[in-house]
Design a protein that fits this description.
Blueprint (H helix, E strand, L loop, with lengths): L5 E10 L2 E2 L1 H10 L5 E3 L2 E3 L12 H4 L4 H14 L8 E5 L5 H13 L11 H5 L3 H10 L5 E2 L7 H14 L5 E8 L3 H9 L28 E9 H6 L6 E10 L8 H15 L8 E3 L6 H15 L4 E3 L2 H4 L6 H15 L18 E2 L12 E8 L3 E8 L21 E4 L10 H15 L21 H15 L15 H11 L4 E5 L5 E2 L28 H19 L8 H10 L2 H8 L7
Parallel strand pairs: 5-6, 5-7, 10-11, 10-13, 11-12
Antiparallel strand pairs: 1-2, 1-8, 1-9, 3-4, 7-8, 9-14, 13-14, 15-16, 16-17
Helix pairs in contact: 3-6, 7-13, 10-11, 14-15, 14-16, 17-18
Length: 599
């Protein structure tokens, strides 16, 4: 069965940094520790939630975790009318605060029930978060509430991904929420896994030799997942793509299992049709426990070796339980979009038994992160892994279509030889202006060619650092020599720089004729635009039938492999093998005879 492509088009958060994704991102980027003390215990508490944003008719059946989840879901949805939208939102259990309130009065009043409010059950039922969010937002799709302790949110994201990928839903609101309660800390204390440190900055130290254990927290994270075509039709901003996932059980209810963890990661890679070498970043579950961190570190090394960068956000946020996988997925998407790798806060002396590439020190900017793996594991042996792709890859992936009489339509991505942009000056100006207006909140009237970056646009030295990220993201290239940017004074200088240095990729499609056409397909990878300005006929003079031969061979191979791997999607093993063939030197050599050149 052909899978639909699933993208993330909205995110919402309530975290120990406060209400909203901007506060979450700001806290991480500034390297602030959000942990605090409560009754002598270090924990990650949400400082404030404006529950009155939610109408009373919905709020009256909500516990603190449902309120946080609803606020996060409202932020994720934005102006979209949910309608036929499914919900997969998790919590570790029903509200422990409300359960404590109930039994403290119930026992004190000799088991008398006359005082109990009719809404009490709706606050403690196991699917309280999912049900309340669906009701408050008017979601009429399926309602799922996977309760898998600390892996709950990634399990919910995986279920949402599968529901869309297999055509069951158009959109899904996915994630998790939990509220802090001493019961949670006590659970980890009784199994010897809770941190006893009293200094918030030294209490949660994932992967550190001096790590002390789990620091519990609270919050909510929600991601809006959507079918790619649906997102494109409504012009939604695509924050990233989910390309694979895996859910497994390990052999012990409380003992971490490195072999089971490594198998879960391999299954996620296989589901996406990716190799370990394709992963540019791994966000670990790593809670700061001795056995948990060690098992996960060993599993990461077994799958990826010691090269892939690894971090954990538990030093920033603590362990927000069922919310952790969703909040950390939002941060992973931010890392993909901005090309930045954040360190593990508090990590000073890495555990010498873990030979993996642990991120520490300062954030690393300007990274080209294509695919990222997010791990999430839980007591009870629940394991979950999910793979995200950079949003820039959504329009530049291998694609095929069935609308043409000669079979599947293959698209090959061939780098342009040498420097220089294949875009027109007008296209460059439009894209730079759009990016600057959005990222730096500038009025379009200010964006003229002779506008001075500092005097007219007010961009200081810190903005210059962000400018590199903005340009690299907008034009999908890497600024290799940052010193050149110091010479840039005006917008016109930027246009010149892009025109001279942004080596954009050419896209070539095997259309319904034996020629390859053309660089215009970079914006629409499954077909040529009607206003194509780079006809290939003149460049196909050498070996004119060679592309057709290759095309027919690979079309036949596609059907053969697809029939052998029918349970796989376009990310499956069949397509991985086919992509390897198409990317071979021989095939690229044949394409070179038909490479169009702009006049």
């Amino acid at each position: 069965m052909q899978r639909e492509r699933v993208v993330v088009t909205g995110v919402g958060a309530v975290s120990p940094y406060g209400e909203g994704v901007p506060l979450l991102l700001e806290g991480i980027e500034l390297g602030r520790c959000a942990l605090t003390k409560r009754d002598g215990c270090v924990c990650g508490l949400v400082p404030h939630c404006d529950a009155y944003k939610i109408p009373r008719k919905f709020r009256r059946s909500m516990s603190p975790m449902s309120i946080m989840a609803t606020l996060a879901a409202q932020e994720a949805v934005g102006p979209v009318l949910p309608g036929r939208t499914g919900v997969a939102l998790a919590s570790t259990m029903g509200s422990p605060t409300e359960l404590e309130n109930f039994f403290s009065i119930y026992c004190a009043q000799s088991e008398e029930l006359s005082w109990v409010r009719s809404t009490a059950f709706f606050k403690v039922m196991s699917h309280t978060v999912a049900a309340n969010v669906a009701l408050a937002l008017g979601c009429t799709g399926r309602t799922l509430a996977p309760s898998a302790a600390c892996s709950s949110a990634v399990a919910a994201l995986s279920l949402g991904y599968e529901a869309i990928a297999f055509g069951r839903e158009e959109r899904m609101l996915c994630g998790g929420a939990d509220e802090y309660h001493p019961l949670t800390t006590m659970t980890f204390e009784r199994i010897g896994a809770a941190s006893h440190a009293r200094d918030p900055m030294k209490s949660s130290l994932p992967f550190d030799r001096e790590r002390r254990g789990v620091v519990c927290g609270e919050g909510a994270g929600v991601l809006l997942l959507e079918r790619l075509e649906s997102a494109q039709e409504r012009g939604a901003t695509i924050l990233g793509e989910i390309v694979g996932c895996a859910l497994r059980s390990s052999s012990g209810i409380a003992q971490p299992d490195a072999e089971a963890i490594s198998e879960c990661m391999r299954e996620a890679l296989d589901d996406a049709g990716l190799r370990p070498s394709d992963i540019d970043y791994c966000n670990a579950h790593a809670t700061g426990t001795e056995f948990g961190d060690r098992a996960e570190g060993q599993a990461i090394y077994a799958v990826f070796g010691g090269d892939v960068p690894v971090n954990s956000f538990k030093g920033h946020l603590g362990h927000t339980m069922a919310a952790s996988g969703a909040l950390e997925s939002i941060l992973v998407l931010s890392s993909l979009a901005k090309g930045v790798l954040f360190p593990t806060l508090g990590l000073r002396t890495p555990d010498p038994s873990l030979p993996i590439n642990l991120l520490m020190g300062s954030p690393q900017y300007g990274k080209n992160i294509r695919f990222a793996l997010k791990n999430s594991f839980a007591l009870g042996g629940s394991l979950a892994c999910i793979l995200f792709a950079n949003s820039a890859l959504c329009a530049k992936s291998w694609a095929w279509a069935m609308g043409n009489t000669l079979g599947p339509l293959w698209v090959a991505r061939i780098p342009k030889q040498g420097n220089g942009s294949c875009m027109t000056r007008e296209e460059i100006v439009a894209r730079v202006n759009e990016a600057f207006a959005r990222e730096f909140e500038l009025d379009s009237a200010q964006l003229v060619e002779n506008a001075n970056l500092h005097d007219d646009l007010g961009l200081d030295s810190l903005d210059r650092v962000d400018m590199v990220i903005v340009l690299e993201k907008a034009f999908s290239f890497t600024v290799s020599d940052k010193s050149q940017l110091a010479k840039i004074a005006t917008l016109g200088d930027i246009y010149d720089y892009i025109e001279a240095n942004a080596a954009n990729d050419h896209w070539y499609c095997l259309h319904c004729s034996p020629v390859l056409c053309c660089d215009c397909a970079r914006n629409s990878p499954v077909s040529c635009r009607s206003d194509c300005r780079s006809p290939c006929a003149g460049n196909a003079a050498f070996f004119p039938h060679l592309p057709l031969v290759f095309w027919l061979c690979f079309s036949s191979l596609a059907f053969t492999l697809d029939s052998c791997a029918h349970k796989k999607s376009r990310h499956g093993a069949a397509y991985t093998a086919l992509n390897s063939c198409v990317q071979s030197p021989v095939f690229s050599w044949s394409l070179s005879f038909c490479r169009p050149e702009r006049a």
